[in-house]
Write a structure and sequence with these properties.
It contains 15 helices and 4 strands. By secondary structure, it is mainly α. It is globular and about 110 Å long.
């Protein structure tokens, strides 16, 4: 239930979301930074207005009250979320993708969508327990990068009024960051029960588990695909002693039975054997998730295929705001779960849970990968950046074969670089409306590097020609000397 005093804020947020949706659907022209920043300023005003309304009953939720919060400031907001918070989350999610699209990936609003997706991934890892230290390290480093972006947005503001306007956004982002940080800390701490000697066994069992989940998610999994995996699982099983504990080599080279982590590895081993049996029982069957789960499987498979194509072609085809539709679809599917499992209308848990959870986590992982790989280059300049990257790569490959290079060899690359040079005005790549899009430094650096490679190739060709001319002169001189000697002998 939305309080009466928050209804104007709700109406304004819905209007902002409609503006963003309209802007996202417009494919006739590039997204302009000024349009996004105008909506962003309107949103900041509503966030601060909402904070003012809730200030008298300010409360800190358990999730938000940690030392990671900036200077211990309390985050204003109700204990229970209402529709205003839901709409606000959707608006920030979409606006964050807009910031990635216009190349402002190093500004704090761009971190929201990444933190939201990271939280879902970490939640799924926590539910499944299928992760290793190597899986968590990229999240740790990325989380620190995002914290740096958020905090830098406040420290870089010289205008006190502008800094106060940003305060509501910073509080919201730090809350999201803190939730991810505590989830990650929990996951890292749970690996503390694993002894170092058992870490390689645990790592291999996790790898095999993921491989089996990938096989199980196929439309017609073949039992023969699990043969080699079963051989390896039995080899791991043979390393257990009579009392069921894993025997591994200790630091001193002697065989030991570490106490910490035995149950964890034993559980993973049993789960892998169970999945192998399920795949063998379904040998060649088309139905992956029978009954009411089949439509969910079909939808997740479709989403995964689309996202995997985007991973391959995102530099040329992806507008980051397109990810919003995928996020909403996946969140809707994720919300169907109860206690971490998909259930039917009778509350039962049909077969195919492993496959659906694997596909769901795979899709979230692909979205996170696409967000994290977004470059700080505006959508309008991305075609130029792609062309420069291609020219540079081609020049590097050609230069590997060595010179000399004829003018005909270098002409296509010089022509491409000349065409790009003509797009610049006073050293800047302007937008169609005369504004200066993000990514100028990257494009100018790529252009300079490409010109430098061409110059090096031309220099290499000139040196080779000089050596060839010198060798030809020596050869001609030697021939003339030999002729003179021959003439002298004839005279004698």
């Amino acid at each position: 239930m939305v309080p009466a005093e928050e209804l104007p804020v709700l109406e304004a947020l819905i209007n902002i979301r409609n503006r963003l949706t309209k802007l996202k659907k417009d494919r006739t022209e590039y997204i302009r930074a000024k349009d996004v920043l105008s909506i962003y300023n309107a949103l900041l005003s509503e966030v601060n207005r909402l904070n003012d309304l809730r200030a008298p009953s300010a409360a800190v939720t358990p999730e938000a009250s940690t030392s990671s919060n900036a200077e211990g400031k309390q985050l204003v907001g109700p204990v229970e979320e209402n529709r205003v918070d839901t709409i606000l989350n959707d608006v920030f999610q979409l606006l964050s993708l807009f910031f990635l699209t216009i190349g402002k990936s190093r500004e704090s609003p761009a971190t929201f969508c990444q933190l939201a997706t990271m939280k879902r991934l970490l939640t799924h890892l926590n539910e499944s327990g299928i992760y290793t230290e190597a899986d968590l390290k990229p999240f740790q480093s990325r989380l620190q990068e995002l914290k740096g972006i958020i905090t830098a947005s406040t420290s870089d503001r010289d205008d006190e009024l502008e800094s106060d306007k940003q305060e509501g956004l910073v509080k919201l982002l730090l809350t999201k960051w803190d939730q991810c940080d505590r989830l990650l800390t929990k996951l890292v701490g749970s690996l503390g029960i694993l002894s170092p000697e058992l870490a390689p066994v645990h790592q291999r069992l996790i790898t095999l588990r993921r491989l089996l989940a990938s096989i199980a998610s196929r439309v017609r999994p073949q039992a023969s695909e699990t043969t080699q995996i079963l051989v390896e699982l039995r080899a791991i099983e043979d390393r257990r002693s009579a009392n069921g504990k894993f025997v591994v080599e200790g630091e001193d080279g002697e065989m030991v039975e570490p106490e910490k982590g035995q149950e964890l590895c034993a559980g993973l081993l049993e789960d892998n054997f169970d999945i192998c049996q399920e795949i063998q029982a379904r040998d060649g069957a088309e139905d992956v998730a029978r009954g009411p789960l089949q439509p969910i499987y079909d939808r997740l498979s479709e989403l995964r295929a689309q996202l995997e194509r985007l991973v391959l072609t995102h530099r040329w085809t992806l507008r980051e705001t397109d990810l919003y539709n995928y996020q909403m679809a996946l969140q809707e599917i994720d919300s169907m779960r109860k206690d971490g499992k998909f259930v039917d209308s009778d509350g039962n848990r049909p077969e195919g849970q492993l496959v659906l959870l694997y596909l769901l986590r795979r899709c979230f992982g692909l979205i996170y990968r696409l967000m994290a790989s977004s470059e700080p280059i505006s959508e309008e300049l991305m075609p130029i950046a792609n062309k420069l990257s291609t020219v540079k790569r081609c020049l590097i490959e050609v230069s590997k074969y060595g010179g000399p290079y004829s003018p005909r060899d270098l002409y296509p690359y010089q022509l491409a670089l000349a065409q790009i040079d003509q797009l610049r005005k006073d050293g800047i790549f302007p937008a169609a409306d005369g504004t200066i899009p993000e990514g100028q430094g990257i494009l100018n650096a790529l252009l300079s590097e490409a010109h430098e490679i061409v110059s090096m190739m031309q220099e290499e060709t000139a040196i080779a020609e000089e050596k060839e001319d010198a060798a030809r002169s020596v050869s001609a001189g030697a021939g003339a000397a030999a002729g003179a000697v021959a003439e002298g002998e004839k005279v004698e």
